[in-house]
Amino acid sequence: MTEPALQLDAVGLQIGGARILRDVSMQVATGEMVGVIGPNGAGKTTLFNIISGVSVPTSGRVLLGGDDVTGRKVHQRARAGLGRTFQTSSVFPGLTVGENARLAAQSKLGGATSPWRFPRADDEASGVAARCLEEVGLAHHTGTAAGVLSHGDKRKLEIAMLLATEPEVVLLDEPMAGVGSGDVGGLVEVIRRLHASGRTVLMVEHHMEVLLGLVDRVAVMHHGELLAIDTPKAVMADPAVQKAYLGETV
């Protein structure tokens, strides 16, 4: 039997007397895309922090491909094939698009990571960066300063940087946050291709129309608990979900 790409076993987090997460269990199959929804304070970002190693759970386990990574650091999980984007932009605005992508590739390949070292156009990191920028549709912006990109293109660059680290499991934390309506369609296609490439994707997103059109299943968080996880259609029809998150009327 194939191990899930990502598995949470009764994950909990308690800080002082406050219980932030309570017994969250789920399995995400290889190549599956799961959306995570819930009102503010439901525990979505905390869940991502625990999966990525930013926070350590006080109970339960996190497994990647069947390996227990609960005690591993962020960089160790990255080496194990886990990648994450964040709600706020994480590009280097003073560097070019190509330099940003190349730094990410260098971090995976090892060796010097200075963007001011003049690389050969045919070196391995430059090649990886070029392929990743092509994949997200930013190849024509290689020499553009990242700081002048639209917010949507910055999100694409973040995904290109993520791809350069060759992750097998990808966490996207509100990729549409702050993105203008004109950039949403292009970013959706990038995420769709990311999923179609066979990577496993877990995505937190408040843009419900976008999320429901992309994911295989939806996980609903409420007060630190996993309220439901099912197909978008089944979740939207669940009375408990409607009451807790979407309101009495959908």
Automatic annotation (TrEMBL):
Q: Cross-referenced SMART domains, in alphabetical order? A: AAA
Q: Name one GO molecular function term.
A: ATP binding
PROSITE patterns, alphabetized: ABC_TRANSPORTER_1, ABC_TRANSPORTER_2
Domain ABC transporter residues, every copy: 6-248
| Alphabetical keyword list | ATP-binding, Nucleotide-binding, Transport
What is one Pfam family matched by this protein?
BCA_ABC_TP_C
The highest taxon in the source lineage is Bacteria
Q: Which residues form a coiled coil?
A: none
State the name under which the record lists this protein: ABC transporter ATP-binding protein
Q: Which organism is it from?
A: Agrococcus citreus
